[in-house]
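idk why but the lab printer keeps eating my pages so im just putting this in chat instead. protein + iron/sulfur cluster:
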Amino acid sequence: MDNNLKCEATKCVYNMNRLCSAKEIEVQGEDTMGGRFTFCGTFEERGIGNMVSEMGNMNLRAEIKQLFSDEQEMDPMVGCNARNCIYNQDAHCHAEHVNIVSEIAETAAQTECQTFYPR
Ligand code: SF4
Ligand code: SF4
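predcted complex ->
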């Protein structure tokens, strides 16, 4: 299932206008009971070198479609190991909408899944 995902972590190499251009992301959280201990493990700080090295996980087809569409085309698959989240089933996220923050994040650990909701 692809997830409707918005992301405020604009310093990430995959962030395009607050959408995520990765094909897949991996949210981390293990046995946390609070959303602030979750984070997007796929975050990579934007830099000249890694724009090219991260191309393998980029959803280029969706990026091009997004340029000509008002619909949200970039919807990555969301793997997740935060097993106490109500939306987690078999290490995949089944939330209709996922919100990742924050704008000031410079590392993966500084991001957070705001959609986390404890079982
Ligand atoms: S932080 Fe995660 S969800 Fe946000 S753009 Fe980067 S890879 Fe995508
Ligand atoms: S909503 Fe829950 S299952 Fe989905 S990515 Fe966030 S923490 Fe993981």
